[in-house]
# Entry
Amino acid sequence: MSAASTAARRRDDDRKLFEDTKLGVKGLYDSGVSKIPSFFVHAGKSTADAADLAIPTVDLGGVAAAGDLRRRAVEGVRIACEGWGLFQVVNHGIPEGVLEEMIGGVRRFHESESRRDWYSRDKGRKVTYYSNSTLFNVAAADWRDTLVCEMAPSPPEPQELPESCRDIVIEFSEQVHNLGLTLLELLSEALGLKPSHLKDMHCGEGLVLLCQYYPPCPEPERAMGCNTHNDGTFLTILLQDQMGGLQFLLDDQWVNVLPQKGALLVNIGDLMQLISNDKFKSASHRVLAKAIGPRVSIASFFRTSFGIEQASKLYGPIKELVSEENPPIYRETTAPGYLASYRAKVCAENRLDTISPLSSFRL
# Structure
């Protein structure tokens, strides 16, 4: 057996041992490791300096009623989605106390010994905890752990949620879902459509919370908190603590997303870029590993329901947005079909920072 084959087998064995602890990256950190396991090493990691730019900010105060404030918000959303693919929202209606408790609840869960009771890769469960959904499919894993809660359209029973964060997950998911529906109205208007258009397409029917925990890393220069990717969603709303580390790609330049207390970050996903026929841009982003921490974030993914009826629904460029002068750029696909294409591409290329599969749907 060659040295390369021996090393690969050893990495696979190490992955299995890591998985069997059911304690994730937090367990590694707690064990006092001074060097990260080889399957967390990102060879050729880019260390280029990132720019500090002012992220577009949209004030949602007063958007419930028609008038200048709503028109100003719609215009801000349009400019941000066409040029940046993301923006921050303030005066969004979710109390700061709810945001702080959500971050605290997620941290409590990830720092509890009982988290191992939730460790599972069973896709049939509405609530799961694991480290790296692609742990066994990519060459280098990310330095993070994840609690996943599928909260809409059919939320889990309260007892299916961890007690350490149960109440706040239920409260936060209700409030962020309402915010997402408001944003879909503004996005519809920014596309020149009636306010209910994207909601009528079921773009906000499904809500999944990805509650991420990034422990301090002993070798941050060799690791990634979350490798470069685009979200396979219509829309993502991100709540993050004040640790920083999130970056997005703008015109081939990495840009730091500096946390703003009380604000929420909104980014466009691949499926929104597809149905908008490239009018809105999906934002490529990543999270750096850091020697300090932990970093806690909650990504609220808005997608269609994966129920039998909606799973077969085809999504393509919205007909009101296409014409002879502006023909469709993409072919139709189902939301599950798009995600399956993404996962297949990741597995085939053995890395997470693969080019978005959106290109494979181009006509």
Summary: The CA atoms of residues 90 and 165 lie 25 Å apart. The first strand starts at residue 51 and ends at 52. The two ends are 45 Å apart (CA to CA).
